[in-house]
Design a protein that fits this description.
Layout lengths: L7 H6 E3 L5 E4 L12 H8 L1 E3 L2 H10 L4
Antiparallel strand pairs: 1-2, 2-3
Length: about 60
């Protein structure tokens, strides 16, 4: 079985927690920020876990993470 290549784009965006879950940052925080409320922008700063439905695919493209 040959070595698997990690998808570098995904490796830059996801980190693994101690329990093996995938941590990601939230979207919609890069531009057009004037119309978004301060509360909404503050909540977008926080990181969150990936959804269970996507986790299986993410583990496939990040074999050594």
């Amino acid at each position: 079985m040959p070595k698997l290549k990690t998808k570098r784009a995904a490796a830059k965006r996801f980190k693994v927690t101690g329990t093996g879950k995938l941590k990601r940052s939230k979207a919609y925080k890069s531009h057009i920020l004037t119309k978004k409320t301060t509360k909404r922008k503050r909540n977008l700063r926080k990181s969150t876990m990936t959804d269970k439905t996507n986790e299986k695919n993410m583990k496939k493209i990040l074999p050594y993470l």
